[in-house]
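Ticket #4471: complex job returned nothing on first submit. Input attached below:
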Amino acid sequence: MKKIAILQAPFVQEMRKTTANLYRLGWDERNGGNISYLLKEEEVTPFLNVEEVIRKIPMIFDASELAGFYFIVTGSGKYFKNVTDEPSENLGIVRVAQDGKSLDLLWGLDNFATPTSELPSHFMSHIARRKVDPENRIIMHNHASHLLAMSFTHELDERKFTRTLWKMCTECLVVFPEGIGIIPWMVPGTNEIGKATSEKMKENRLVLWPQHGIYGAGRDMDEVFGLIETAEKAAQVYTYVCAQGGVKQTISDENLQRLAKMFGVEPRAGYLDVF
Ligand code: 2HA
Ligand code: ZN
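Support reply: We reran it on our side without changes. The output follows.
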């Protein structure tokens, strides 16, 4: 059967649009940031012959829980700024091999490029999120500026950090009622940071990497992008509030509780002081 040109695939278009948006927001300078997007086989087969493996790419960890799964990923060392114009150099479509120790490259990552250096954190987070939400398909990492700045000025206590964000914009509690997870500062690209991130992903879709950036998880691009931009907006407002001299009034815990009831969300247990 004749294949449709891969550049017409909706998931390739989404990756191009999203990386361009993220770049314009200033959250993905140079090679900062990475995205992995789980694809269903039936989404891939109209465009690619999945029996044609371009090359095998070894991995430094065991992803056998994802064996046979397809992903479109951003490339290691690649610039989000360049994805729109040069998709096949900067993106790749891969399938996790049966033993979970290598990837079959099916498209892209031209000139021997490799998938994002943060693949351990991405894949371990996919595994963790899919256990709580089998519909989860995207993991996104970027260097959202105000969240990054807040990781220097705000106490790195998950409850306190979450409560500050919730109180900066009325929308926040509704968008991430489970709050935000925070790991210690760690060396990026390692299995260790992957384990720590995925541990937090069991209970959060947002995980802060102090002095580095943010991880988000979601069922689709709108969910994960919306999640990160809502938290980032709250962090931006926090920055302005601090610059304007600090909080004089804010949303009370009782009002956050009323908000949660109205929108049918369950704030993380113990995060609101209401009895
Ligand atoms: O891909 O953002 O964390 C570059 C990074 C590493
Ligand atoms: Zn990063």
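The chain has ten helices and nine strands. Closing as resolved unless it happens again.
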